[in-house]
Structures are given as structure tokens and as C-alpha cells.
Amino acid sequence: MTSAPGPASRAALGVIGPGRAGTGLALAWARAGYPVQLHGRRAKSVPTPLTLTVGPAGEPPPWLAHVSVVILAVPDDAIPPLAKVLANSGGVRAEQVVLHLSGSRGHEALEALASSGAALGSLHPLQTLVEPDRTPLHLRGAWAAIEGMPRAVEIAERLSRAVGLRPFRVRPEDKPLYHAGAVFASNYFVVAEAVAERLLRQAGLSEADAWAALRPLVRGTLDNLVREGPLKALTGPVLRGDAETVARHLAVLPEIVAELYRGLGAAALELARRRGLDEANAERVARTLATDSPPSRRREERT
Q1: How large is the average pLDDT for residues 55-59?
Q2: Is the dihedral of CA 32, 37, 89, 71 positive or negative?
């Protein structure tokens, strides 16, 4: 039986997809002592000591037979077609490990490679990867979701620890739920700030002043959130049971923003109840959030 590759054996890694995540992770593994190959469809500059091989989308990378671990750093919908390309090439061997980086898909996305005998799995860093040069630093202390066949899981955990990630295992069927949580924590956090900035602009602030005014609030909220967690960090009218303020907000918000406010308000109400909000006030807030058109808006619509 072929021994599993790991940091001690300086296993060669091959990353397909020189985007921000692929390049950043390749750089982190290279700095951790792994020989790393990087492959893409178009020539581009990559950080030292990485080098990039280039080839058409329908062809496997030239180094495929010479690496122990193949990592697919491509968009989710590109994973199955790429797995098929690799399978059709016949270049994937049983002793290799193939991983993808999707947060929402399990190793079933690599199904085309099942007949190769390679160990299939996924590794998803729970971190935003924007600037490849800064990725090695940002990975340290972040967590990583791991799933797949036993040998793939073992290797994914080793690769995670080598760059400072904290791996944890997740079932394939739970990955969409896990990834949705990540989207709320990161992507929709940014969207919420964009909505807040827009509302301040509509209230009369310039674009520059709106974000400048919000920055201290966001920073303070984030500090509290990191220190205390969501339950203790929550503040605002829902926590206070202030249904009248909630109604005033809903009366002036554009419809799409009002619907967002209602959904987040309902989630805030769950936290408020856990914090001890009395049931009478909780019910008043719940009724206000559930009202299709607040009284003040209905009055405006009749005039």
C-alpha cells in the first residue's frame, strides 16, 4: 500500500486554478515547504516562488502524473467538468489524492474520478481569500471544513495544519448548510454595511461621509461580536422590545430593504428572547415585523 503524502515527505502538490484562492493557498503551501505546481488557462504573474504552467481548458496540466495531491481551485460549477477532463486523460492514479476547495459541495463533485481509485475529498478554508500575498497570514488561526474519503480527509487535515488552519470534519450533505452560514458571516455582513451606507446617503450624507460615519460603529460592533459572540453583542430596538421604532423604520424603507429588515428582525427577535426579552414586548415586535404594510405607510398610500 502506498504511504500517504504529508509534510515530512515533502509531497508534491498541484493546484489547478490560479485565482485568488488557488494562488494564495499555493503560496502558503510553498512557504510551508511543499513543492507546488500551479496551472491555469492564461498566462499571468504569480508570487515568488510560484511558477505557472498554462494550457487549454480541455487538457490536463503537464505535471499531473508527477504530484501526489491535485487541488481543484475552480468555481463550483467548473469542478465536475474539470474532474471529467482529468479522468479522461487517464493521468490520475490510485495513489493520488484529489481535493476541491468548494464550500458548498462534497467530494461527489469529483465523481468522474471515482474509477481512478484516487482518494477524493474537499478542503474549504473558512476565511476570505482576496490578496494572494496576504493569504498565508490570513490562514493562520482560521478554520477549514474537511470531508471525503478517509485518505483524502487525512491529507486535507495535514495540508490545513501545515499552513496554520484548524481543520474540522463536516458531512458532505451538511456542506450547503455550513457554507450558507459562512455566506451570512462574511458576504452578507458586507451587504448589510452597503445597505446601511445607502440609507445614510438617502438621509442626506455624502457617500464619503456616510461610510466615514459608519466605520466607528462597525468597528465597535465587530469588536463586541468577536469578544462576546452574537448573543451578547446584540443591541438595538428589537432587543429592547421597541416595536414603535421598528414600525417607524419599516414605514420609510424601500420594499426590498424592508423585507430584508423583517427577516433579520425576526432572527434578532430570537436572540432577544434568549437574552430575556419579556413575551409581551416580544409579541409586539413580532406583530410589527409581520405586518405587510406599516400603518404610516398605509396612510401615505391612501393620500
Answers
A1: 91
A2: positive
Tell me how far the alpha carbon of residue 105 is from its chain's centroid: 12
Give the strand pairing for 36-40 and 13-16: parallel
Cell of 161: 495544519
Is residue 110 classed as helix, strand or coil in its secondary structure? Answer: helix
Report the CATH architecture of 7-173.
Answer: 3-Layer(aba) Sandwich (3.40)
| pLDDT, tens only, 178-216 | 999 999 999 999 999 999 999 999 999 999 999 999 999
CA-nearest of 119, 123, 113, 112 to 3 is 119
* Mean pLDDT calculated for residue range 235-264: 97
Instruction: Give me the residues paired with residue 71 across strands.
Output: 15, 99
DSSP track, 210-256: HHHHHHHHHHHHHHHHHHH-HHHH--SHHHHT-HHHHHHHHHHS-HH
Rounded alpha-carbon distances, angstroms, from residue 94 to 42, 58, 80, 90, 149:
29, 22, 19, 11, 13
d(CA 79, CA 174): 19
User: What does the domain layout of the chain look like in residue ranges?
Assistant: 7-173, 185-302
Q: What is the pLDDT of residues 21-37, one digit of tens each?
A: 999 999 999 999 999 99
Q: Is the dihedral of CA 166, 168, 173, 177 positive or negative?
A: negative
C-alpha 97/C-alpha 125 separation (Å) is: 18
pTM of the model: 0.88
pLDDT at site 58: 87
Our CA angle for 49, 51, 53, nearest 5°, is 170
